[in-house]
Input
Amino acid sequence: MKIVVAAKRVIDPENLNKLRLSPKGELDSTGLEQKANPYDEYALETALRLTENGTNTKQRLGEVVVVTFGPKATEPMLRAMLGTGADRAIRIDSTDDLLDGGVVASGLKALVDREKPDLVLLGYQQAEHESNEVGQRLAGLLGWPQATFAGSIESENDTALVVGREVEGATSKVRVRLPAVVTVLDKIVHPKSVVSRHTPANHAYPDGVRFAALMAIMAAKKKPLAELALGDLTREAPRIRYSAAELPPRRAAGVKVKSVAELVAKLKTEAKVV
Amino acid sequence: MAGTLVVAELSHGSLRRSSLSAITFAKQVGAPFAVLALGAGTSAAAKELAAFGAQRVLVADDPTLHDYVCERFAPTVARVVQDGSWDTVVVAATAFGKDLAPRVAAILGAGYAPDINLVKIDGAQRRYRRPMCAGNVFGWLEITTPLQVVSVRQTEFSAAEPGSGASPIERVALAPEDAAAKGIEFVKLEATTSQRPDLAEARVVVAGGRALKEQFMQVLEPLADTLTAAIGASRAACDAGYAPPELQVGQTGRTVAPQLYIAIGISGAIQHVAGMKASKVIVAINKDGDAPIFQIADYGLVQDLFTAIPELVKLLRAQS
Output
Protein backbone atom coordinates (compact mmCIF):
# COMPACT_ATOMS: atom_id res chain seq x y z
CA MET A 1 0.00 0.00 0.00
CA LYS A 2 1.21 3.49 -0.84
CA ILE A 3 0.25 6.14 1.70
CA VAL A 4 0.60 9.92 1.68
CA VAL A 5 0.68 11.50 5.14
CA ALA A 6 0.05 15.25 5.33
CA ALA A 7 1.67 17.00 8.29
CA LYS A 8 1.67 20.58 9.55
CA ARG A 9 4.22 22.27 11.75
CA VAL A 10 2.50 24.10 14.60
CA ILE A 11 3.31 25.78 17.89
CA ASP A 12 4.00 23.10 20.50
CA PRO A 13 0.52 22.53 22.00
CA GLU A 14 2.09 22.52 25.47
CA ASN A 15 2.93 26.20 24.94
CA LEU A 16 -0.30 27.48 23.41
CA ASN A 17 -1.27 29.11 26.69
CA LYS A 18 1.82 31.34 26.33
CA LEU A 19 0.47 33.06 23.21
CA ARG A 20 0.26 36.83 23.55
CA LEU A 21 -1.24 39.63 21.49
CA SER A 22 1.01 42.26 19.94
CA PRO A 23 0.06 45.94 20.45
CA LYS A 24 -1.54 45.76 16.97
CA GLY A 25 -3.77 42.92 18.13
CA GLU A 26 -1.91 40.23 16.23
CA LEU A 27 -0.93 36.86 17.65
CA ASP A 28 2.60 36.84 18.96
CA SER A 29 4.26 33.43 19.12
CA THR A 30 7.83 34.72 19.45
CA GLY A 31 10.07 32.26 21.22
CA LEU A 32 7.54 29.43 21.20
CA GLU A 33 8.91 26.15 19.89
CA GLN A 34 7.36 24.70 16.73
CA LYS A 35 6.87 21.00 16.14
CA ALA A 36 4.80 18.53 14.15
CA ASN A 37 1.08 18.66 14.85
CA PRO A 38 0.55 15.73 17.27
CA TYR A 39 -2.43 14.34 15.32
CA ASP A 40 -0.30 14.27 12.16
CA GLU A 41 2.32 12.27 14.08
CA TYR A 42 -0.47 9.83 14.90
CA ALA A 43 -1.29 9.74 11.17
CA LEU A 44 2.33 8.83 10.40
CA GLU A 45 2.31 6.11 13.08
CA THR A 46 -0.89 4.75 11.50
CA ALA A 47 0.73 4.72 8.04
CA LEU A 48 3.76 2.87 9.38
CA ARG A 49 1.59 0.25 11.14
CA LEU A 50 -0.38 -0.33 7.94
CA THR A 51 2.77 -0.91 5.87
CA GLU A 52 4.78 -3.28 8.04
CA ASN A 53 4.81 -6.49 9.99
CA GLY A 54 4.66 -5.19 13.57
CA THR A 55 7.21 -7.80 14.63
CA ASN A 56 9.76 -6.52 12.07
CA THR A 57 9.31 -2.77 11.78
CA LYS A 58 12.56 -2.23 9.88
CA GLN A 59 11.09 -3.53 6.65
CA ARG A 60 8.52 -1.34 4.90
CA LEU A 61 5.84 -3.27 2.97
CA GLY A 62 4.73 -0.39 0.82
CA GLU A 63 5.63 3.27 0.66
CA VAL A 64 4.98 6.15 3.06
CA VAL A 65 5.39 9.70 1.72
CA VAL A 66 5.13 12.66 4.12
CA VAL A 67 4.08 16.05 2.77
CA THR A 68 4.01 19.47 4.36
CA PHE A 69 3.18 23.00 3.29
CA GLY A 70 5.66 25.43 4.79
CA PRO A 71 8.95 27.32 4.62
CA LYS A 72 12.42 25.74 4.68
CA ALA A 73 12.27 25.81 8.49
CA THR A 74 9.80 22.91 8.35
CA GLU A 75 12.44 20.57 6.88
CA PRO A 76 13.76 19.37 10.28
CA MET A 77 10.20 18.14 11.01
CA LEU A 78 10.19 16.20 7.72
CA ARG A 79 13.68 14.78 8.46
CA ALA A 80 12.44 13.63 11.86
CA MET A 81 9.49 11.91 10.18
CA LEU A 82 11.87 10.23 7.72
CA GLY A 83 13.88 9.07 10.73
CA THR A 84 10.72 7.62 12.24
CA GLY A 85 10.14 5.48 9.16
CA ALA A 86 8.70 7.43 6.23
CA ASP A 87 10.39 6.69 2.89
CA ARG A 88 10.22 10.09 1.19
CA ALA A 89 9.28 13.65 2.02
CA ILE A 90 7.90 16.53 -0.04
CA ARG A 91 7.86 20.15 1.08
CA ILE A 92 5.55 22.48 -0.74
CA ASP A 93 7.20 25.84 -0.28
CA SER A 94 4.72 28.29 1.22
CA THR A 95 3.97 30.51 4.17
CA ASP A 96 0.85 30.45 6.31
CA ASP A 97 -0.53 33.73 4.88
CA LEU A 98 -0.92 31.99 1.49
CA LEU A 99 -2.78 29.02 2.94
CA ASP A 100 -6.17 28.07 4.26
CA GLY A 101 -7.92 24.70 4.37
CA GLY A 102 -9.15 25.16 0.80
CA VAL A 103 -5.70 25.99 -0.63
CA VAL A 104 -4.03 23.10 1.20
CA ALA A 105 -6.71 20.66 0.02
CA SER A 106 -6.38 21.92 -3.55
CA GLY A 107 -2.57 21.56 -3.44
CA LEU A 108 -2.84 18.09 -1.94
CA LYS A 109 -5.30 17.09 -4.64
CA ALA A 110 -2.78 18.01 -7.35
CA LEU A 111 -0.09 16.10 -5.48
CA VAL A 112 -2.32 13.04 -5.09
CA ASP A 113 -3.05 13.15 -8.84
CA ARG A 114 0.73 12.85 -9.40
CA GLU A 115 1.61 10.40 -6.61
CA LYS A 116 -1.47 8.16 -6.93
CA PRO A 117 -1.45 6.81 -3.36
CA ASP A 118 -3.96 4.23 -2.12
CA LEU A 119 -4.60 6.23 1.02
CA VAL A 120 -4.14 9.75 2.37
CA LEU A 121 -3.84 10.00 6.16
CA LEU A 122 -4.04 13.22 8.16
CA GLY A 123 -4.60 14.28 11.76
CA TYR A 124 -8.26 15.14 12.24
CA GLN A 125 -7.26 18.74 12.97
CA GLN A 126 -4.19 20.85 13.61
CA ALA A 127 -3.47 22.29 17.02
CA GLU A 128 -3.49 25.99 16.09
CA HIS A 129 -6.56 26.70 13.95
CA GLU A 130 -8.37 23.47 14.82
CA SER A 131 -10.50 23.87 11.72
CA ASN A 132 -10.85 20.14 10.99
CA GLU A 133 -11.48 20.51 7.27
CA VAL A 134 -8.54 19.58 5.01
CA GLY A 135 -9.27 15.82 4.88
CA GLN A 136 -12.95 16.31 4.07
CA ARG A 137 -12.20 18.96 1.44
CA LEU A 138 -9.51 16.77 -0.14
CA ALA A 139 -11.85 13.78 -0.32
CA GLY A 140 -14.54 16.01 -1.85
CA LEU A 141 -12.16 17.37 -4.50
CA LEU A 142 -10.86 13.88 -5.35
CA GLY A 143 -14.31 12.30 -5.30
CA TRP A 144 -12.98 9.71 -2.84
CA PRO A 145 -14.67 8.29 0.24
CA GLN A 146 -13.64 9.79 3.58
CA ALA A 147 -13.51 8.49 7.13
CA THR A 148 -12.96 11.22 9.73
CA PHE A 149 -12.43 10.91 13.51
CA ALA A 150 -10.83 7.48 13.05
CA GLY A 151 -10.12 5.69 16.34
CA SER A 152 -9.49 2.29 14.73
CA ILE A 153 -8.59 0.93 11.30
CA GLU A 154 -8.73 -2.62 10.06
CA SER A 155 -7.23 -3.21 6.65
CA GLU A 156 -9.01 -5.78 4.49
CA ASN A 157 -6.28 -7.11 2.18
CA ASP A 158 -5.13 -3.54 1.56
CA THR A 159 -8.09 -2.95 -0.76
CA ALA A 160 -10.58 -1.63 1.79
CA LEU A 161 -10.48 -0.33 5.36
CA VAL A 162 -13.03 -0.81 8.12
CA VAL A 163 -12.75 2.43 10.08
CA GLY A 164 -14.20 3.03 13.55
CA ARG A 165 -15.25 6.69 13.57
CA GLU A 166 -15.60 8.11 17.08
CA VAL A 167 -18.77 10.17 17.10
CA GLU A 168 -20.74 11.44 20.11
CA GLY A 169 -21.16 8.51 22.48
CA ALA A 170 -20.77 5.89 19.75
CA THR A 171 -18.48 4.37 17.16
CA SER A 172 -19.70 4.56 13.58
CA LYS A 173 -18.11 1.74 11.60
CA VAL A 174 -17.73 2.29 7.87
CA ARG A 175 -16.01 0.32 5.15
CA VAL A 176 -14.15 2.52 2.66
CA ARG A 177 -12.86 1.09 -0.57
CA LEU A 178 -9.39 2.41 -1.44
CA PRO A 179 -8.34 4.96 -2.53
CA ALA A 180 -9.69 6.98 0.37
CA VAL A 181 -8.92 9.77 2.82
CA VAL A 182 -8.81 9.04 6.56
CA THR A 183 -8.29 11.52 9.42
CA VAL A 184 -7.21 10.16 12.80
CA LEU A 185 -7.77 10.81 16.51
CA ASP A 186 -5.26 10.10 19.29
CA LYS A 187 -6.97 6.75 19.99
CA ILE A 188 -5.53 5.40 16.72
CA VAL A 189 -2.13 4.88 18.41
CA HIS A 190 -3.46 2.55 21.09
CA PRO A 191 -1.77 -0.90 21.02
CA LYS A 192 -4.43 -2.67 18.91
CA SER A 193 -6.11 0.20 17.03
CA VAL A 194 -4.53 -0.57 13.64
CA VAL A 195 -4.93 -4.08 12.23
CA SER A 196 -3.58 -5.44 8.97
CA ARG A 197 -2.81 -8.85 7.49
CA HIS A 198 0.93 -8.07 7.60
CA THR A 199 1.06 -8.19 11.41
CA PRO A 200 0.16 -11.26 13.52
CA ALA A 201 -3.26 -10.85 15.15
CA ASN A 202 -1.87 -11.27 18.66
CA HIS A 203 0.69 -8.49 18.25
CA ALA A 204 0.23 -5.40 20.42
CA TYR A 205 2.11 -2.17 19.71
CA PRO A 206 3.48 -0.01 22.50
CA ASP A 207 0.94 2.72 23.34
CA GLY A 208 1.66 5.91 21.39
CA VAL A 209 3.97 6.80 18.54
CA ARG A 210 7.40 5.26 17.98
CA PHE A 211 10.59 7.23 18.33
CA ALA A 212 13.41 7.22 15.83
CA ALA A 213 16.57 5.32 16.74
CA LEU A 214 19.81 7.24 16.35
CA MET A 215 20.86 5.03 13.43
CA ALA A 216 17.58 5.72 11.69
CA ILE A 217 18.00 9.47 12.16
CA MET A 218 21.44 9.24 10.54
CA ALA A 219 20.08 7.12 7.69
CA ALA A 220 17.18 9.55 7.18
CA LYS A 221 19.63 12.21 6.06
CA LYS A 222 20.04 10.21 2.85
CA LYS A 223 16.31 9.75 2.20
CA PRO A 224 14.81 11.91 -0.57
CA LEU A 225 13.29 15.26 0.40
CA ALA A 226 11.82 17.07 -2.60
CA GLU A 227 10.72 20.68 -2.79
CA LEU A 228 7.85 21.94 -4.90
CA ALA A 229 6.51 25.46 -5.40
CA LEU A 230 2.95 26.04 -4.24
CA GLY A 231 2.16 27.51 -7.67
CA ASP A 232 3.13 24.22 -9.32
CA LEU A 233 0.21 22.57 -7.58
CA THR A 234 -2.51 25.16 -7.17
CA ARG A 235 -3.37 28.70 -8.20
CA GLU A 236 -6.07 29.06 -5.59
CA ALA A 237 -6.18 31.85 -3.03
CA PRO A 238 -7.51 31.58 0.52
CA ARG A 239 -11.29 31.81 0.90
CA ILE A 240 -11.13 32.99 4.48
CA ARG A 241 -9.19 35.81 6.11
CA TYR A 242 -8.34 36.08 9.79
CA SER A 243 -8.58 39.80 10.55
CA ALA A 244 -8.14 39.99 14.32
CA ALA A 245 -7.48 38.00 17.44
CA GLU A 246 -8.39 38.49 21.05
CA LEU A 247 -7.66 36.69 24.28
CA PRO A 248 -10.71 35.12 25.91
CA PRO A 249 -11.88 36.83 29.09
CA ARG A 250 -10.04 35.65 32.17
CA ARG A 251 -12.01 34.02 34.91
CA ALA A 252 -12.01 35.62 38.32
CA ALA A 253 -11.79 33.56 41.48
CA GLY A 254 -15.18 32.96 43.06
CA VAL A 255 -16.06 32.17 46.65
CA LYS A 256 -14.98 29.45 49.02
CA VAL A 257 -17.79 27.53 50.67
CA LYS A 258 -17.44 25.97 54.10
CA SER A 259 -19.35 22.74 53.64
CA VAL A 260 -20.83 20.36 51.10
CA ALA A 261 -24.29 21.51 52.20
CA GLU A 262 -23.44 25.14 51.43
CA LEU A 263 -22.03 24.09 48.04
CA VAL A 264 -25.23 22.26 47.10
CA ALA A 265 -27.32 25.24 48.24
CA LYS A 266 -25.27 27.66 46.11
CA LEU A 267 -25.39 25.40 43.05
CA LYS A 268 -29.13 25.15 43.41
CA THR A 269 -30.27 28.67 44.29
CA GLU A 270 -27.44 30.92 43.04
CA ALA A 271 -25.90 29.19 40.04
CA LYS A 272 -29.07 27.21 39.25
CA VAL A 273 -27.14 24.34 37.67
CA VAL A 274 -28.37 21.36 39.70
CA MET B 1 -32.61 33.57 -3.29
CA ALA B 2 -30.38 34.94 -0.64
CA GLY B 3 -30.72 33.43 2.78
CA THR B 4 -29.56 30.60 4.96
CA LEU B 5 -29.93 26.87 4.54
CA VAL B 6 -29.86 25.06 7.89
CA VAL B 7 -28.87 21.40 7.61
CA ALA B 8 -30.59 19.51 10.44
CA GLU B 9 -29.16 16.37 12.01
CA LEU B 10 -31.40 13.34 12.40
CA SER B 11 -30.66 10.15 14.23
CA HIS B 12 -32.79 7.37 12.77
CA GLY B 13 -35.68 9.70 12.11
CA SER B 14 -35.57 11.70 15.31
CA LEU B 15 -34.35 15.26 15.34
CA ARG B 16 -31.12 15.89 17.23
CA ARG B 17 -31.25 18.89 19.51
CA SER B 18 -27.98 20.25 18.06
CA SER B 19 -29.99 21.22 14.94
CA LEU B 20 -31.76 23.88 16.99
CA SER B 21 -28.43 25.66 17.58
CA ALA B 22 -27.99 25.97 13.82
CA ILE B 23 -31.52 27.44 13.60
CA THR B 24 -30.54 30.00 16.27
CA PHE B 25 -27.67 31.09 14.04
CA ALA B 26 -30.04 31.47 11.06
CA LYS B 27 -32.37 33.62 13.14
CA GLN B 28 -29.47 35.78 14.33
CA VAL B 29 -28.25 36.62 10.83
CA GLY B 30 -31.79 37.65 10.04
CA ALA B 31 -32.25 36.61 6.40
CA PRO B 32 -34.99 34.15 5.39
CA PHE B 33 -34.00 30.57 6.06
CA ALA B 34 -34.98 27.04 5.17
CA VAL B 35 -34.20 23.83 7.02
CA LEU B 36 -33.07 20.69 5.21
CA ALA B 37 -33.58 17.28 6.81
CA LEU B 38 -32.00 14.19 5.26
CA GLY B 39 -32.85 10.64 6.26
CA ALA B 40 -35.11 7.66 5.76
CA GLY B 41 -38.46 8.39 7.39
CA THR B 42 -38.23 12.11 8.04
CA SER B 43 -41.89 13.06 8.53
CA ALA B 44 -41.84 13.35 12.34
CA ALA B 45 -38.64 15.43 12.33
CA ALA B 46 -39.94 17.61 9.48
CA LYS B 47 -43.13 18.32 11.41
CA GLU B 48 -41.08 19.28 14.45
CA LEU B 49 -38.82 21.51 12.34
CA ALA B 50 -41.84 23.31 10.84
CA ALA B 51 -42.40 25.16 14.13
CA PHE B 52 -39.29 27.38 14.04
CA GLY B 53 -40.29 30.05 11.53
CA ALA B 54 -38.44 28.64 8.53
CA GLN B 55 -39.68 29.75 5.14
CA ARG B 56 -39.70 26.08 4.12
CA VAL B 57 -38.71 22.73 5.52
CA LEU B 58 -37.03 20.66 2.82
CA VAL B 59 -36.80 16.90 3.12
CA ALA B 60 -34.59 14.45 1.27
CA ASP B 61 -36.18 11.16 2.26
CA ASP B 62 -34.75 7.97 0.86
CA PRO B 63 -33.75 4.51 2.12
CA THR B 64 -30.13 5.21 1.08
CA LEU B 65 -30.04 8.02 3.65
CA HIS B 66 -30.98 5.76 6.58
CA ASP B 67 -27.47 5.88 8.02
CA TYR B 68 -25.28 8.93 7.71
CA VAL B 69 -22.30 8.75 5.41
CA CYS B 70 -20.93 12.02 4.09
CA GLU B 71 -20.59 10.71 0.54
CA ARG B 72 -24.39 10.31 0.25
CA PHE B 73 -25.39 13.45 2.14
CA ALA B 74 -22.91 16.09 0.88
CA PRO B 75 -23.83 15.96 -2.85
CA THR B 76 -27.54 16.36 -2.04
CA VAL B 77 -26.89 19.26 0.32
CA ALA B 78 -24.75 20.90 -2.38
CA ARG B 79 -27.48 20.41 -4.95
CA VAL B 80 -30.13 21.96 -2.69
CA VAL B 81 -27.84 24.94 -2.06
CA GLN B 82 -27.38 25.49 -5.77
CA ASP B 83 -31.03 24.98 -6.67
CA GLY B 84 -32.13 27.41 -3.97
CA SER B 85 -29.27 29.90 -4.50
CA TRP B 86 -28.74 30.06 -0.73
CA ASP B 87 -25.79 32.23 0.29
CA THR B 88 -25.13 30.56 3.66
CA VAL B 89 -25.11 26.95 4.83
CA VAL B 90 -25.08 26.27 8.57
CA VAL B 91 -24.74 23.10 10.64
CA ALA B 92 -24.13 22.51 14.34
CA ALA B 93 -20.48 21.68 15.09
CA THR B 94 -21.13 18.04 16.00
CA ALA B 95 -19.29 15.05 14.53
CA PHE B 96 -22.01 15.05 11.82
CA GLY B 97 -21.69 18.76 11.04
CA LYS B 98 -17.90 18.80 11.14
CA ASP B 99 -17.71 15.81 8.81
CA LEU B 100 -20.28 17.14 6.35
CA ALA B 101 -19.70 20.91 6.12
CA PRO B 102 -16.12 20.95 4.73
CA ARG B 103 -17.01 18.47 1.99
CA VAL B 104 -20.03 20.58 1.00
CA ALA B 105 -17.75 23.66 1.00
CA ALA B 106 -15.24 21.85 -1.24
CA ILE B 107 -17.91 20.73 -3.71
CA LEU B 108 -19.22 24.30 -3.97
CA GLY B 109 -15.84 26.09 -3.81
CA ALA B 110 -16.90 27.95 -0.66
CA GLY B 111 -15.05 29.28 2.37
CA TYR B 112 -15.78 27.64 5.71
CA ALA B 113 -15.94 29.12 9.20
CA PRO B 114 -15.72 26.14 11.57
CA ASP B 115 -16.86 25.93 15.17
CA ILE B 116 -17.83 29.59 15.62
CA ASN B 117 -18.97 31.00 18.96
CA LEU B 118 -20.19 34.43 17.76
CA VAL B 119 -21.31 36.15 14.56
CA LYS B 120 -21.23 39.93 14.05
CA ILE B 121 -22.87 41.70 11.16
CA ASP B 122 -21.40 45.02 9.97
CA GLY B 123 -23.58 46.02 7.02
CA ALA B 124 -22.92 43.53 4.25
CA GLN B 125 -19.88 42.09 6.03
CA ARG B 126 -20.20 39.16 8.38
CA ARG B 127 -17.46 38.44 10.91
CA TYR B 128 -17.17 35.15 12.72
CA ARG B 129 -15.42 34.55 16.02
CA ARG B 130 -14.04 31.15 16.97
CA PRO B 131 -11.89 29.66 19.71
CA MET B 132 -8.51 28.38 18.53
CA CYS B 133 -5.27 27.13 20.06
CA ALA B 134 -7.01 24.95 22.68
CA GLY B 135 -9.24 27.82 23.75
CA ASN B 136 -6.35 30.20 24.41
CA VAL B 137 -7.27 32.60 21.59
CA PHE B 138 -10.41 33.85 19.88
CA GLY B 139 -9.82 34.50 16.17
CA TRP B 140 -12.05 36.70 13.99
CA LEU B 141 -12.43 35.67 10.39
CA GLU B 142 -14.29 36.67 7.26
CA ILE B 143 -15.23 34.45 4.35
CA THR B 144 -14.38 35.94 0.97
CA THR B 145 -16.53 33.70 -1.25
CA PRO B 146 -20.18 34.54 -2.05
CA LEU B 147 -21.28 31.26 -0.44
CA GLN B 148 -20.45 30.91 3.26
CA VAL B 149 -20.39 27.57 5.06
CA VAL B 150 -20.51 27.75 8.85
CA SER B 151 -20.59 25.35 11.80
CA VAL B 152 -21.76 26.70 15.17
CA ARG B 153 -20.92 25.63 18.70
CA GLN B 154 -23.86 24.48 20.76
CA THR B 155 -22.39 25.99 23.92
CA GLU B 156 -22.78 29.55 22.61
CA PHE B 157 -25.67 29.13 20.17
CA SER B 158 -28.38 27.88 22.49
CA ALA B 159 -31.26 25.82 21.11
CA ALA B 160 -34.02 27.78 19.31
CA GLU B 161 -37.48 27.63 20.88
CA PRO B 162 -40.37 26.38 18.75
CA GLY B 163 -43.19 28.84 17.91
CA SER B 164 -46.72 28.34 16.67
CA GLY B 165 -46.12 28.68 12.91
CA ALA B 166 -46.07 25.78 10.53
CA SER B 167 -43.59 26.05 7.67
CA PRO B 168 -44.56 24.28 4.45
CA ILE B 169 -42.78 20.96 3.96
CA GLU B 170 -41.37 20.18 0.51
CA ARG B 171 -39.56 17.15 -0.81
CA VAL B 172 -36.26 17.65 -2.64
CA ALA B 173 -34.54 15.31 -5.07
CA LEU B 174 -31.39 13.40 -4.23
CA ALA B 175 -28.17 13.99 -6.11
CA PRO B 176 -27.20 10.95 -8.19
CA GLU B 177 -24.94 8.39 -6.50
CA ASP B 178 -21.31 9.02 -7.48
CA ALA B 179 -18.10 6.98 -7.21
CA ALA B 180 -17.40 8.15 -3.66
CA ALA B 181 -20.86 6.99 -2.51
CA LYS B 182 -20.22 3.61 -4.12
CA GLY B 183 -16.86 3.43 -2.33
CA ILE B 184 -18.28 3.65 1.19
CA GLU B 185 -20.53 1.32 3.09
CA PHE B 186 -22.03 1.95 6.51
CA VAL B 187 -21.36 -1.11 8.67
CA LYS B 188 -22.87 -0.41 12.09
CA LEU B 189 -23.17 2.01 14.95
CA GLU B 190 -21.76 0.68 18.20
CA ALA B 191 -22.92 2.58 21.24
CA THR B 192 -20.05 3.22 23.59
CA THR B 193 -20.43 0.83 26.54
CA SER B 194 -20.85 3.77 28.87
CA GLN B 195 -24.40 5.09 29.12
CA ARG B 196 -22.96 8.45 30.10
CA PRO B 197 -23.10 11.48 27.83
CA ASP B 198 -20.03 12.23 25.75
CA LEU B 199 -17.59 14.74 27.24
CA ALA B 200 -18.22 17.22 24.45
CA GLU B 201 -22.00 17.11 24.77
CA ALA B 202 -22.53 16.71 28.51
CA ARG B 203 -24.32 19.43 30.47
CA VAL B 204 -22.29 18.46 33.54
CA VAL B 205 -18.72 17.15 33.68
CA VAL B 206 -17.27 15.56 36.79
CA ALA B 207 -13.47 15.43 36.52
CA GLY B 208 -10.91 13.83 38.79
CA GLY B 209 -7.19 14.15 39.37
CA ARG B 210 -4.37 11.94 40.53
CA ALA B 211 -5.47 12.29 44.17
CA LEU B 212 -8.26 9.77 43.46
CA LYS B 213 -5.72 7.01 42.90
CA GLU B 214 -7.13 3.53 42.20
CA GLN B 215 -10.53 4.67 43.49
CA PHE B 216 -10.99 7.05 40.53
CA MET B 217 -14.11 5.40 39.09
CA GLN B 218 -15.41 4.13 42.40
CA VAL B 219 -15.60 7.68 43.78
CA LEU B 220 -16.66 9.53 40.63
CA GLU B 221 -19.23 7.16 39.11
CA PRO B 222 -21.96 7.64 41.75
CA LEU B 223 -21.61 11.44 41.40
CA ALA B 224 -21.67 11.25 37.59
CA ASP B 225 -24.72 8.98 37.72
CA THR B 226 -26.56 11.37 40.06
CA LEU B 227 -25.90 14.38 37.80
CA THR B 228 -26.14 12.51 34.44
CA ALA B 229 -22.63 13.82 33.93
CA ALA B 230 -19.70 12.82 31.74
CA ILE B 231 -16.49 11.84 33.51
CA GLY B 232 -13.24 13.66 32.74
CA ALA B 233 -9.74 13.40 34.11
CA SER B 234 -6.56 15.40 34.48
CA ARG B 235 -3.53 14.41 32.50
CA ALA B 236 -1.78 13.30 35.70
CA ALA B 237 -4.63 10.88 36.44
CA CYS B 238 -4.47 9.47 32.89
CA ASP B 239 -0.67 9.20 32.87
CA ALA B 240 -0.78 7.35 36.19
CA GLY B 241 -3.26 4.89 34.69
CA TYR B 242 -6.13 5.75 37.07
CA ALA B 243 -8.32 6.93 34.18
CA PRO B 244 -8.40 5.90 30.50
CA PRO B 245 -6.65 8.39 28.17
CA GLU B 246 -9.82 9.30 26.26
CA LEU B 247 -11.16 10.99 29.40
CA GLN B 248 -8.34 13.51 29.49
CA VAL B 249 -9.49 17.13 29.58
CA GLY B 250 -6.91 19.76 28.73
CA GLN B 251 -4.70 21.23 26.09
CA THR B 252 -3.60 17.85 24.78
CA GLY B 253 -6.93 16.16 25.54
CA ARG B 254 -10.54 17.22 25.09
CA THR B 255 -11.82 20.75 25.36
CA VAL B 256 -15.15 21.01 27.17
CA ALA B 257 -17.55 23.82 28.02
CA PRO B 258 -20.41 22.35 30.07
CA GLN B 259 -22.90 24.24 32.24
CA LEU B 260 -21.24 22.78 35.33
CA TYR B 261 -17.67 21.47 35.73
CA ILE B 262 -16.71 19.86 39.02
CA ALA B 263 -12.93 19.50 39.43
CA ILE B 264 -12.15 16.93 42.11
CA GLY B 265 -8.64 16.55 43.47
CA ILE B 266 -7.32 18.50 40.48
CA SER B 267 -4.61 21.05 41.22
CA GLY B 268 -5.40 23.19 38.17
CA ALA B 269 -2.29 23.02 36.00
CA ILE B 270 -2.44 25.47 33.07
CA GLN B 271 -2.55 22.47 30.77
CA HIS B 272 -5.80 21.27 32.35
CA VAL B 273 -7.40 24.70 32.74
CA ALA B 274 -7.02 25.34 28.99
CA GLY B 275 -9.44 22.51 28.32
CA MET B 276 -12.22 23.54 30.73
CA LYS B 277 -12.05 27.24 31.45
CA ALA B 278 -14.94 28.00 29.10
CA SER B 279 -17.30 26.06 31.40
CA LYS B 280 -20.19 28.16 32.70
CA VAL B 281 -19.84 27.28 36.39
CA ILE B 282 -16.68 25.72 37.84
CA VAL B 283 -16.59 23.97 41.21
CA ALA B 284 -13.28 22.90 42.78
CA ILE B 285 -12.99 20.40 45.59
CA ASN B 286 -9.45 19.93 46.89
CA LYS B 287 -7.91 19.54 50.31
CA ASP B 288 -5.06 21.88 49.36
CA GLY B 289 -6.53 25.36 49.78
CA ASP B 290 -3.64 26.89 47.82
CA ALA B 291 -4.24 24.80 44.67
CA PRO B 292 -4.35 27.06 41.56
CA ILE B 293 -7.73 25.59 40.57
CA PHE B 294 -9.35 27.81 43.23
CA GLN B 295 -8.24 30.89 41.28
CA ILE B 296 -10.66 30.10 38.48
CA ALA B 297 -13.39 28.27 40.39
CA ASP B 298 -16.74 29.96 41.03
CA TYR B 299 -17.21 27.80 44.10
CA GLY B 300 -14.34 26.24 46.02
CA LEU B 301 -14.51 23.70 48.81
CA VAL B 302 -11.37 22.90 50.78
CA GLN B 303 -12.04 19.39 52.01
CA ASP B 304 -10.77 15.87 51.57
CA LEU B 305 -12.50 14.49 48.49
CA PHE B 306 -12.96 11.03 49.96
CA THR B 307 -15.37 12.50 52.54
CA ALA B 308 -16.74 15.36 50.41
CA ILE B 309 -17.86 13.37 47.36
CA PRO B 310 -19.97 10.72 49.15
CA GLU B 311 -21.62 13.53 51.11
CA LEU B 312 -22.24 15.50 47.91
CA VAL B 313 -23.83 12.45 46.29
CA LYS B 314 -26.06 11.91 49.34
CA LEU B 315 -27.27 15.54 49.42
CA LEU B 316 -27.89 15.69 45.65
CA ARG B 317 -29.87 12.44 45.75
CA ALA B 318 -31.93 13.71 48.67
CA GLN B 319 -32.88 16.72 46.54
CA SER B 320 -34.09 14.90 43.48
Notes: Residues 2-249 of chain A form a domain with the Rossmann fold fold (CATH 3.40.50.620). Chain A has a mean pLDDT of 95.
